[in-house]
């Protein structure tokens, strides 16, 4: 204790001495170059001395300098340092620029901020300015191509739909691979992003390795996306308006179908369909019809967004308020999203006590269509399957009945509506108190809730096929509504100590954290909508054949964690990070609830070494090495009561729901007991280098990682005589290793013109290292996927197609031995490529000239394979009563024909490589042209800033995939694809 | 004096206490139990709790892989009773065209799903022993049904997967499962499987004759009772060619449930009555149906039509079965393309409903007459056999004059009557399998496989590939 006091006294003495040596006074104001706003808290230091000050809430400062002047150094976390020679000036105003991927950057991990130089973990920061204007409702979709190691696949263009995100590959097979999302310190649901407003975001950080995610331990195995919403900025209250409007278009399908003539000729040649029974005149009449079913279903989508925000405050209270309206109609008729969000962020900083509240309320209404299925009533399938010689309406305006027996897609589209509403509140309050008896010791507690109330309604009128299907009791229409209520609270309380003693700096935190989710559902389905009212009020009551169904369920799960983090720094260039934690999860049996995890990391700022000093001035501005190793746990993705045998009163054994028998209640076993199930653990080694070259014209970093998931959740295949396919067990080991490169270059910077390039690239190799000893040598096979040692998880498992036998037209298959056969044998299946892209990334080019900026973001992913079930459904010759692919025009017809499409009259297989396609794509994800009006003009108009922009989203796509869109996860295009929207918008941003 | 460590310790304890708030202790916070489902410790708490579990098994029989398709109409679709149309979604083409390989999903799921219901029965049988002394008659009621379900499901499996049905065959049958545990069983011989089926069913019989409450009523036949067990045993004995036993069991079933009159016969198919029904799986509106993949009344999609050959066997004007089972396409509303076809309307719906949700008559007396006739004909009791056949025909055909077939003609007449009587009731494929082993589809269209010779290995389904990958003790059938 005594030594501490002495040190403290020493520091105090230095400060006093400095204060005495004043001579002349310099004042000024520091602003942000980005928006011209005042920057409070900027450090200003006289170079080579300890003399310094900070800007006040209005960005103003005053500093006393010796008569000789010198050089002032302006620094602020997240912004580029700037040095100004004082000379004779007495007023020095400075505008600081943002400074991405530099050592001075702040690393936001969710529990306070770290300086990048001391942080050994792997973190990617995404500047919100790069994503905030994109006309997409779901935040997760916006992350595509923005950060190394983060693979974002859109999956769908339906307004409000969520993307699939993988951070450094899939580390789990049966567990979740979805990253954890933390907004203002609390966990939020990954599935529903349409109700969060991306425009309110200040920083997004993606935490990738064990060191960075270790503070999230049990939840961080799949990476963590940490989002901080905008804080108030001190000074005059600033009000901004941002708005945009645009249109969306459906892309062209690369899968071509037959036109009317082709299809009629094809059917007549094959024979057996209804056309055979028609007269020649009728056939001629049909030939005159050539319906483009896409035109019947598609429309031009419209997007508009308006945001009004206000920010301001003084030294002690800061606020940020915003309101946002987002409205988007999709390119499929009847699909849209309307979202209304509001936010209040308040913060008080008075003396040792700081507290604040970040809160948002959002409401979204989404009208949607089913997608990614093979249902005949899905309009997105019907546009493939409906024959071009059919029309949607009869002459009298009634719906036609298609000859093939398929439902009329226009009828199904019009007579069914699906709506999803969500009310979401995310609120987090924190309080932090600097304890008076020890400098650097503070207490912080942060409590928050992610509450959402969702309501889904599916209405099938009595005029469509879906509303008169056999599943609809009484066949007079159906209204199904389900309510979901989810409450997850997160509470984190910590004691933190941080101090510097000469060359030594120490930061220690002790934490306890609770997370609890309570989730409940209730739903009903009513029948007999035969009256005037076509809503819940019109449901028929007390009819024995139309008894309404009700359903409900509830689950809860909880996590309890204790952990500690410590950082030690020496000479501000050597750093060591340590983390240790103990987690308990309610999902496991009592014997396996708790597990321990930890990590260790080191960071070395090489360019701060004295021996590097000469180099640092010209070529090498900064160089840092870092390395870390650690473990994190995973328990997401398994059931809330995964260890127990579960009997349900209402449940499904195959596709059918069982809830009663002969009017009596039922109970069925739906899950086998699994008491040995325990934590999945991911161990990651990460090493990285960060550099700045040629006066920071080139900055970037390279990281190499190797992570091994142990006790991997995997389906241990059971003898089916148990009645079950498999049981989830901790068998196996999985490796993800890769390399990530991020590079930012200022290619040209002359006067008013600059050209900047940002590139990121990731290579991720996924490999199974170990499976259960009882797994056969060939691997764990489920349908078309296989998990085999030495290969990526969920690899494609298919029999190789070897074309058509020219003599018979039969399909031929290549056995692993190379022999060609016409006999299909599932034992001949082989592994054909991974389902998840091993190579991906993005690059952005930005050109600036005066107030004009043009930027283009390309994203890409390649190396994966997709089983195109959508194509197989129009190439299976059995389906020729419906429309089929133009590929069948070249099918085998007579001996000697050389083709890849077999004789339609012979049996044919579909689990073959003929339907496996490369998933490679590159797309011009976003291009933006913007113009900032000159500040002179602004001042006269009494405005702070004004910006106009035009942007295109998904403008171009380069791919060979035979479908609308290659952005598909899970390795299979099932059918009914809703491709990513091609959207063009114009927008304006005004600040007062 | 407080050291820093002690201050920290105290504060830390305070923090944790504050963090946990209401929770009394740390581990309580993560000690959660299901509130909306049951676990093995809560499900078999008392004897009455066995009833919903048993109901769950009966409800499972509605599944596609049980009496929702594969045990209800698939055996007709696999044989010569139906022909696939161009309206087919070809979801079952590999089965109906006999192109199945060991990795065929349907082949795998029928296997697994049958064992799932066996597992249900085994759970009941394992847990009920503790209650047998307290209320023996009630325990009998549940235990008897569980034993019967276990026997029936083993028999259903044997029918599809065994290469032959000979009573003393040493050919590989199917694994026998009598305990609800995870294990890797091998295939018992066909003989051993028969032994187990008989054992379960014959044990169920006395139990179901000594129960605390009636299992079924005259108009509600939704559960397996003693009469049903006799009917199951009669069918088993016929397959096993144990004709004396077949005659005995069939007679017991006939006595319990006499043949329906011609007047009431159509009402059986709309569930207006349950005459001569021994056991029917209940399908209520919204619960699917037993034959939606043949013809779906709601969507009016006919994926399979009755074969012309089958239709020609009926006396369309006088046979009550013809009007009960079929409707000319022109009379089916909304058919743009079926004027010249005949639609299989046997399972149209209850009453006047057109949703296909109608009970599946798994066992009924018509079959019992045919079993007894066949068993008698094959055990030198031709006169009685002919009497049974004539009784049945008289009950179905108006103005029927008794006929006098003998010898092979009698056997052929019984086989033909079986085909007509039990159309779409899940027999044809197995009847061919246990007799001629030839399928010959007449006026078969291009794109459909038309013939299956006796030499084909497809008469026995392959053992599912996924079973064999997980269970090294299971041998594959020949030809796969």
UniProtKB/TrEMBL annotation, chain B:
UniProt-listed PROSITE patterns: PROKAR_LIPOPROTEIN
Major location (coarse): membrane
Positions of the SusD-like N-terminal domain: 28-238
CDD domains, A to Z: SusD
Keywords: Cell outer membrane, Membrane, Signal
Domain RagB/SusD: 343-480
Subcellular location: Cell outer membrane
InterPro entries xrefs: SusD-like_N, SusD_RagB_dom, TPR-like_helical_dom_sf
Gene3D superfamilies, sorted: 1.25.40.390, 1.25.40.900, 2.20.20.130
Protein family: Belongs to the SusD family.
Protein name, entry field: RagB/SusD family nutrient uptake outer membrane protein
Originating species: Nibrella viscosa
């Amino acid at each position: 204790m005594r030594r501490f006091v002495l040190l403290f006294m020493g520091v105090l003495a230095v400060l006093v001495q400095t204060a005495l040596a004043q001579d002349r006074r310099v004042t000024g104001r520091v602003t942000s170059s980005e928006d011209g706003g005042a920057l409070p808290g900027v450090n200003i230091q006289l170079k080579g001395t300890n003399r310094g000050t900070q800007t006040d809430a209005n960005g103003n400062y005053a500093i006393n300098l010796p008569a000789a002047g010198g050089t002032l150094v302006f620094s602020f976390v997240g912004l580029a340092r700037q040095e100004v020679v004082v000379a004779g000036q007495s007023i020095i105003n400075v505008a600081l620029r943002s400074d991405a991927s530099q050592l001075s950057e702040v690393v936001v991990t969710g529990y306070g901020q770290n300086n990048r130089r001391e942080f050994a973990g792997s973190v990617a920061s995404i500047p919100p300015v790069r994503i905030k204007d994109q006309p997409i409702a779901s935040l997760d979709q916006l992350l595509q191509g923005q950060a190394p190691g983060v693979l974002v696949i859109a999956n769908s263009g339906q307004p409000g739909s969520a993307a699939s995100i993988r951070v450094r590959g899939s580390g789990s097979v049966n567990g979740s691979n979805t990253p954890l999302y933390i907004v203002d310190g609390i966990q939020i649901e990954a599935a529903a992003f349409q109700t969060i407003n991306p425009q309110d975001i200040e920083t997004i950080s993606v935490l990738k390795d064990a060191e960075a995610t270790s503070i999230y331990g049990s939840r961080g195995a799949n990476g963590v996306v940490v989002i901080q919403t905008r804080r108030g900025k001190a000074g005059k209250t600033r009000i901004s308006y941002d708005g945009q409007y645009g249109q969306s278009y459906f892309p062209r399908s690369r899968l071509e179908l037959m036109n009317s003539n082709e299809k009629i000729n094809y059917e007549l040649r094959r024979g057996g369909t209804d056309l055979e029974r028609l007269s020649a005149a009728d056939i001629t009449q049909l030939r005159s019809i050539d319906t483009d079913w896409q035109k019947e279903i598609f429309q031009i989508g419209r997007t508009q967004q308006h945001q009004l925000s206000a920010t301001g405050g003084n030294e002690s209270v800061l606020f940020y308020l915003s309101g946002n309206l987002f409205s988007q109609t999709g390119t499929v008729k009847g699909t849209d999203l309307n979202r209304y969000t509001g936010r209040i962020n308040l913060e008080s900083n008075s003396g040792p006590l700081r507290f604040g509240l970040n809160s948002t309320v959002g409401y979204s209404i989404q009208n949607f269509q089913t997608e990614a299925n093979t249902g005949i009533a899905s309009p997105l399938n019907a546009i493939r399957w409906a024959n071009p010689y059919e029309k949607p309406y009869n002459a009298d305006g009634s719906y036609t009945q298609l000859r093939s027996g398929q439902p009329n897609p226009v009828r199904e589209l019009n007579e069914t509506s699906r709506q999803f509403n969500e009310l979401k509140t995310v609120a987090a309050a924190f309080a932090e108190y600097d304890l008076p008896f020890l400098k650097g010791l503070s207490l912080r507690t942060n409590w928050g809730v992610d509450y959402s109330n969702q309501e889904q309604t599916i209405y099938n009128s009595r005029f469509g096929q879906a509303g008169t299907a056999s599943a609809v009791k009484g066949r007079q229409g159906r209204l199904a509504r389900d309510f979901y209520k989810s409450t997850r609270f997160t509470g984190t309380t910590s004691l933190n100590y941080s101090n510097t003693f000469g060359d030594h700096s120490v930061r220690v935190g002790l934490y306890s954290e609770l997370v609890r989710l309570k989730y409940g559902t209730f739903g009903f389905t009513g029948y007999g909508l035969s009256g005037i009212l076509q809503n819940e009020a019109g449901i028929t009551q007390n009819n024995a054949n139309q008894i309404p169904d009700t359903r409900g369920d509830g689950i809860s799960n909880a996590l309890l964690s204790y952990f500690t983090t410590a950082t030690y720094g020496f000479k501000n260039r050597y750093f060591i990070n340590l983390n240790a934690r103990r987690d308990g999860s309610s999902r496991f049996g009592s014997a396996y609830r708790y597990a321990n995890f930890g990590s260790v990391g080191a960071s070395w700022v090489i360019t701060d070494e004295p021996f590097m000093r000469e180099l640092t001035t010209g070529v090498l501005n900064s160089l840092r090495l870092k390395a870390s190793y650690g473990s994190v746990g995973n328990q997401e993705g398994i059931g809330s009561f995964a260890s127990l045998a579960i009997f349900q009163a209402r449940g499904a054994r195959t596709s059918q729901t069982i809830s009663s028998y002969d009017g009596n209640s039922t109970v069925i076993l739906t899950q086998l007991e699994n008491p040995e199930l325990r934590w999945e653990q991911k161990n990651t080694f990460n090493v990285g280098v960060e550099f700045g070259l040629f006066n920071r014209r080139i900055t970037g970093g390279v990281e190499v990682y190797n992570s091994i998931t142990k006790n991997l959740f995997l389906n241990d295949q059971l003898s089916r005589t148990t009645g079950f396919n498999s049981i989830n067990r901790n068998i196996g080991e999985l490796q993800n290793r890769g390399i990530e490169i991020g590079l930012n270059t200022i290619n040209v910077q002359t006067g008013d013109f600059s050209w900047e390039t940002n590139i990121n690239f990731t290579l991720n190799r996924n490999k199974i290292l170990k499976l259960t000893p009882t797994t056969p040598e060939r691997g764990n096979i489920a349908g078309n996927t296989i998990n085999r040692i030495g290969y990526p998880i969920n690899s494609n498992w298919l029999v190789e197609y070897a074309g058509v036998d020219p003599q018979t037209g039969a399909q031929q298959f290549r056995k692993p031995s190379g022999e060609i056969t016409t006999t299909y044998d599932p034992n001949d299946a082989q592994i054909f490529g991974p389902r998840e892209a091993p190579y991906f990334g993005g690059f952005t080019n930005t050109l600036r000239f005066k107030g004009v900026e043009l930027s283009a973001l390309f994203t890409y992913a390649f190396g994966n394979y997709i089983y195109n079930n959508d194509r197989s459904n129009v190439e299976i010759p059995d389906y020729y009563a419906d429309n089929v692919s133009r590929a069948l025009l070249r099918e085998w017809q007579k001996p000697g024909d050389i083709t890849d499409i077999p004789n339609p009259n012979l049996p044919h297989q579909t689990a073959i490589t003929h339907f496996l396609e490369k998933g490679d794509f590159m797309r011009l994800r976003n291009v933006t042209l913007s113009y900032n009006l000159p500040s002179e003009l602004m001042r006269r108009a009494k405005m702070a800033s004004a910006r106009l922009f035009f942007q295109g989203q998904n403008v171009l796509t380069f791919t060979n995939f035979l479908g609308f869109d290659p952005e598909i996860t899970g390795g299979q295009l099932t059918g009914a694809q809703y491709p990513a929207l091609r959207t063009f918008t114009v927008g304006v941003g005004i600040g007062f | 004096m407080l050291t820093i460590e002690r201050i920290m310790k105290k504060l830390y304890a305070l923090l944790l206490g504050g963090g946990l708030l209401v929770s009394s202790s740390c581990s309580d916070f993560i000690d959660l139990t299901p509130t909306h489902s049951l676990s093995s410790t809560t499900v078999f708490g008392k004897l009455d709790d066995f009833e919903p579990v048993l109901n769950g098994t009966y409800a499972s029989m509605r599944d596609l892989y049980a009496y929702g398709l594969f045990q209800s109409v698939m055996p007709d679709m696999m044989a010569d009773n139906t022909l696939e149309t161009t309206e087919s979604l070809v979801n079952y083409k590999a089965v109906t065209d006999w192109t199945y390989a060991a990795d065929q999903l349907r082949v795998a799921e029928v296997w697994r799903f049958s064992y799932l219901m066996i597992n249900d029965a085994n759970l009941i049988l394992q847990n009920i022993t503790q209650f047998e002394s307290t209320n023996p008659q009630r325990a009998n009621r549940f235990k008897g049904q569980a034993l019967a379900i276990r026997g029936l499901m083993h028999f259903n499996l044997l029918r599809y997967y065994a290469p032959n049905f000979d009573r003393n065959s040493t050919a590989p049958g199917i694994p026998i499962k009598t305990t609800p545990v995870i294990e890797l069983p091998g295939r018992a011989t066909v003989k051993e499987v028969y032994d187990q089926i008989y054992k379960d069913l014959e044990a169920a019989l006395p139990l179901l004759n000594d129960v605390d409450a009636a299992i079924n009523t005259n108009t509600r036949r939704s559960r397996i009772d003693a009469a049903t067990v006799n009917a199951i045993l009669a069918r088993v004995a016929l397959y096993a060619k144990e004709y004396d036993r077949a005659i005995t069991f069939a007679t017991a079933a006939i006595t319990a449930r006499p043949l329906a009159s011609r007047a009431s016969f159509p009402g059986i198919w709309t569930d207006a009555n349950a005459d001569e029904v021994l056991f029917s799986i209940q399908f209520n509106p919204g619960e699917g149906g037993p034959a939606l993949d043949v013809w779906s009344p709601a969507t009016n999609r006919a994926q399979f039509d009755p074969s012309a050959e089958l239709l020609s066997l009926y006396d369309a004007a006088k046979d009550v079965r013809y009007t009960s089972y079929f409707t000319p396409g022109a009379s089916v509303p909304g058919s743009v393309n079926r004027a010249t076809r005949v639609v299989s309307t046997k399972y149209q719906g209850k009453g006047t409903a057109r949703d296909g949700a109608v009970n599946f008559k798994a066992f009924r007396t018509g079959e019992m007459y045919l079993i007894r006739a066949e068993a008698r004909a094959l055990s030198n009791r031709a006169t009685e056999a002919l009497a049974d056949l004539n009784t049945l025909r008289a009950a179905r055909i108006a103005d029927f004059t008794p006929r006098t077939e003998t010898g092979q003609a009698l056997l052929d007449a019984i086989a033909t009557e079986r085909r007509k009587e039990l159309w779409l009731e899940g027999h044809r494929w197995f009847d061919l399998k246990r007799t001629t082993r030839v399928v010959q589809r007449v006026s078969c269209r291009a794109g459909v496989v038309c013939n299956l010779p006796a030499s084909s290995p497809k008469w026995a389904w392959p053992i599912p590939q996924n079973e064999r990958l997980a269970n090294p003790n299971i041998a594959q059938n020949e030809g796969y």
